[in-house]
Amino acid sequence: MSSPSRTSAKARLSGVWALKGYKLEWLRHDAVAGAALFALLVPAGMAYAQAAGLPPVTGLYATVIPLLVYAMVGPSRILVLGPDSSLAPMIAAAIVPLAAGSSERSVALAGLLAVLIGVIMIAGSALKLGAITGLLSKPIRLGYLNGIALLVALSQLPAFLGIEASGDIWQKLAKVATGLVGGEVNVTALLLGMGSLALIWIPRLLKWKVPGVLLAVVGSCVATAVWGLNDDVKVTGVLPQGLPMPALGGISWADALTLLPAAAGIALMAFADTGVLSQTLAAKEGKRVSGNREMAALGAANAATGLLGGFPISGSASRTPVAVDAGAKSQMTGVVGAGLVLAFMLLAPGVTGYLPSATLAAVVIAAAIALADPAGVKRLLGLSRSESVVMLAAFLGVLTVGVLQGIVVAIALALLDFVRRAWDPYRTELGAEAGLPGYHDLERHPDGARIPGLLILRFDAPLFFGNGQVLAAFVREQLDETPEETTHPVTHVILAAEPITGIDTTALDDLLTLDEWLARRGVDLVFAEMKGPVKDKLIRLGTGARFTPEHFFPTVGAAVRELKTNKGGAPDYAT
Q: What is the pLDDT along the chain (575 residues), one digit of tens a residue?
């Protein structure tokens, strides 16, 4: 049996422990997959850095470091970490106002943001908060992703059209509008951008194995070099030769405090995306990945890349499938890819001097379009009105008040909708219907019949301070609407309590007041199918003298059999 310390070490360094069982026959597959991955890592990393308002080289730092760190500590067998299009606008929104136009300060702030995210995730893992992403419901994620897709695509229009623009998204769009009217569009940049988009999308449509991004980058670089377009269009420029280095100079505790709310929001979104991707990959192999371990590994990767000149990263839903489809067997694929990126930075940094900014903009736009999910939006609109409102709030919030603020607004609306449904839950009267065992909703089964002398009610929510009065009013209304029968007056109200998963002290007082009101009318309140913990809480709150064991029944049928006043009044098929 493994010792606790050995088990703990294995959890912390799961990637390293996985390599102990590495099979040599996997190496060829991982090398090929790593090479295929490399074709995407360089252009995607540089493009997403540009989208975040950072120098392109930082995207390569934010590519190499996470891959190496995750290979050592990551729990997933195959998962590619790196810069992501969905995080880029959030990073830009957090650092641009503080950077004051300084590229060096932007890099330092982005690194600090990544370190803060890493610390938050590692702390969250220690506190077992891996399930916190449940706050991000499907409507919120749909609204967020579609809002981000539009925002990211619009932010790249200036580079795509060859128009010089700075500031926030709306300032950039205003500059694009005036540029279009004033004839400032750089036709060469536009043609390169459109050609790049075509080279990205055509292989996707034709299902070629060669990545379209690679064709677009190589093609645009060759065209720029052959036709001497460097002076006609803006290019990425030659990369600084060297390895990732610390770049946190000039930051302060005040900067950390200012960035902390943004770090918390980005950490939530990054882990949500990574967690879903990780679990999906594991499920395909019949396995499961610990959410808390995944959070810790992602936190470590973010902290490391922040310390070494990078910016916040997450799991990549576009590059991970490339590695899988290329035959990746382990995290060695990421190590090979990272090694090739490092070799590129050291041996061929001048190549990017021929890479047009319009091509990087096309890479980002293509990724943004792939991020959008119009089919999911259409489906949700047809399923739920209230959830559609939450989705629309997230979408509009991202576009108007800001990415993080929009998400907060959407989460608040989702929680309010949850409270609203708990405040005013579905409730109904149950009865018996010929041919159907058990007791059923009389509104949905109009042929059902009441049980003489009994009123069976169901309340579909936990009892708390907001709905205790709602339950009491419902019972009174149903009792008042019950036809008076001289031979079989109602003597018992049976509350089918299976949906009641909890009760607080305010709702308990409302329940006791209701019981007193019923008692004055000669009616007893009893419970069927109440869960043990709720029953225990009733007793613990001092109701044992009032609600004795005779007031609780294991099933509605058992209550009916025990309580019906006319033994022939309840049909046999119901009991």
A: 444 444 444 445 555 545 566 788 888 989 988 988 898 899 989 999 988 999 999 999 999 999 999 999 988 888 999 998 889 988 998 998 999 889 999 999 999 999 999 999 999 999 988 777 666 678 888 888 888 889 888 989 999 999 988 777 888 889 999 999 989 999 999 999 999 999 999 988 888 878 888 899 999 999 999 999 988 899 988 888 778 899 999 999 999 999 999 999 899 889 888 887 787 677 777 777 788 889 999 999 999 999 999 999 999 877 888 788 778 888 899 999 999 999 999 999 889 999 999 999 999 898 888 878 899 999 999 988 888 988 898 899 888 887 777 777 777 877 887 788 888 899 999 998 887 888 999 988 888 888 888 999 999 999 999 899 999 999 999 988 876 554 578 889 999 999 999 999 899 999 999 999 999 999 999 999 999 888 888 877 767 677 888 889 999 999 998 887 544 444 444 44
DSSP 98-121: HHTT-HHHHHHHHHHHHHHHHHHH
Could you tell me which residues are beta bridge partners of residue 314? Answer: 82
Q: pTM for the complete prediction?
A: 0.74
For residue 183, the SS3 value is coil
Biggest CA–CA distance in the chain, Å, is 101
Reduced to 3 DSSP states, what percent helix, strand and coil does the chain have, rounded to the nearest 5? 65, 5, 30
Cα-Cα-Cα-Cα dihedral sign, residues 215, 152, 74, 16? positive
> What six digits make up the tokens of 534?
């709720």
3-state secondary structure 244-270: CCCCCCCCCHHHHHHHHHHHHHHHHHH
SS (H, E, C) 451-484: CCCEEEEEECCCECCCCHHHHHHHHHHHHHHCCC
For residue 573, the surrounding DSSP H or E stretch is none
b/e burial code for range 430-458 (CB count within 10 A of at least 16 → b): bbbbeeeeebbebeeeeebebbbbbbbbb
For residues 271 and 121, the answer to whether their CB atoms sit within 8 Å is yes
190 vs 249, 327, 353, CA distance in Å? Answer: 37, 36, 18
- Please state, in angstroms and rounded to a whole number, the distance separating the CA atoms of residues 235 and 68: 29
* 3-class DSSP state of 527: strand
**75 and 247 in contact (C-beta within 8 Å)?**
no
- Residue 342 has a CB neighbour count (10 Å cut-off) of 16
- Other Cβ atoms less than 10 A from the Cβ of 127: the count is 11
The answer to whether 275 and 74 have CB atoms below 8 angstroms apart is: no
Other CB atoms closer than 10 Å to residue 187's CB: what's the count?
12
CA distances (Å), origin 545, targets 1, 89, 523, 539:
52, 61, 17, 9
Residue type, 23: K
How many Cβ atoms from other residues are within 10 Å of residue 218's Cβ?
16
For tokens 């505790």, name the residue: 253
| Per-residue tokens: 334 | 């990421």
